[in-house]
Task: structure prediction
Amino acid sequence: MKSKSAVEKLAALAQESRLAIFRALVQEGPAGLCAGDIGARLGVVPATLSFHLKELSRAGLLKSRQEGRFVYYAPDFKAMNALLGYLTENCCSGGVCDDACAPTAASAMKCKA
Amino acid sequence: MKSKSAVEKLAALAQESRLAIFRALVQEGPAGLCAGDIGARLGVVPATLSFHLKELSRAGLLKSRQEGRFVYYAPDFKAMNALLGYLTENCCSGGVCDDACAPTAASAMKCKA
DNA sequence: ATAATATTTCGATAATCATCGAAATATGAA
DNA sequence: TTCATATTTCGATGATTATCGAAATATTAT
Result:
């Protein structure tokens, strides 16, 4: 993961509506939700929603597919995992910390879709 | 983790210099680095560096301690792990995805310090 | 074709953020 | 105390971002 693209992903997530959108989609899974349902669920008007979905997509965090009149959005789990990995990369230089500290509970997307 | 504070943490990380600072500190471990060394390593002038360190601290991502004239900064690994957990929480609602998809490589801070 | 529904683009406005020189503050050394 | 070093605060400037009404585009149903 390039640093620039990591910053873009983090910036995309660093906004209340977009973070809520992303988390809802993570919980929804690979099937995703269509734009209208996301907007209804989170109370975001269409123009604003579209802007945010575009930001998340541009950052590479979402995949979308058209189904008739509807556009379905789902997380790009692979990209998200790459971001998480980038943030935690080489923690403590693999030194004393790896012995002194226990791993935390899983904090990666389980989904590879 | 409250959503507001997650947004604040993500916003703090969503800036090139700050992400570089944070990653350098993650790799350095709990002992941390003093401000001057961070600035020298990353090529950031003092005023700007101080601004960014304050942002990261305000967001709860860094701990600091004074040692003589020096101020040492280190990641708050616990807070960071909470953020990673929040992002991946309840992935795919614990449904089909948990069976269909394998966990990825560890992507959490190993350090609890 | 016409109408209805879903989504995106445009455009203007208001708000927030990054940078860094200069000055201020804090601590240790001579 | 006086000086040198480390870090932070102040203040001004330029740049980026969020919001959303109105209009445009796209797809399906009648």
Chain B touches chain A through 50 residues (CB under 8 Å). Confidence is low (pLDDT under 50) at residues 99-105 of chain B.
